[in-house]
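Following up on my earlier thread - several people asked me to post the actual chain instead of describing it. Fair enough. Here it is, all 212 residues.
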Amino acid sequence: MLERGSVDSAVSNSAAGEAPDAGITSVKLVVAGGFGVGKTTLIGSVSEITPLTTEAVMTAAGAGTDDLSLTPEKTTTTVAMDFGRVSIDADLVLYLFGTPGQRRFWFMWDDLTRGAIGAVVLADSRKLADSFAAVDYFESARVPFIIAVNGFNGDFPHTVADVRDALSVSPRVPMLECDARERNSTKAVLTALVEHAMAESRQPVAIPGPPR
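Reply from S.P.:
Thanks for posting it. Predicted structure:
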């Protein structure tokens, strides 16, 4: 299993601009969750490269569909995926793929998840109902996942225990609070996911249909 220190060190090194050695092994991780929970922000906060985003300006087409009541300042949305990269030690690189959160773009999830060793379900405890689709998807796909509760403005109105009960997830699923804007916090989330994914037994991944 990768040691926590090695993950922390690698992310710190990547921030300093150090390139990974040749012959590295690549590992795919997915960052998923509902609309406006901070997936693009999380990937951007830790990626050692300029993240690839597919942000589009929100238009009247989303009126009545996209709930902006908790994020009124949001003006763009991911329509395909986000992509970032983090080097782990000298021979392992994490490739981060962020899924679109809006229901009308969920058809992208199958392709984005295929080949991933694990996923982060980013949740906003103010609107936990938006997390059920992602939790159900990764449970059905038998993809190891963790839940990261993103505290907007550092505010966590519900405890981790309350969030676990509300989502009805197994005690085996790690759950932690995070601030998607902060590199160290995001680093802790990725560390937890890699450790959890490697601790889980390796089973063939059967990709289900898009979340309903």
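Residues 4-199 form a domain with the Rossmann fold fold (CATH 3.40.50.300). That should answer part of your original question.
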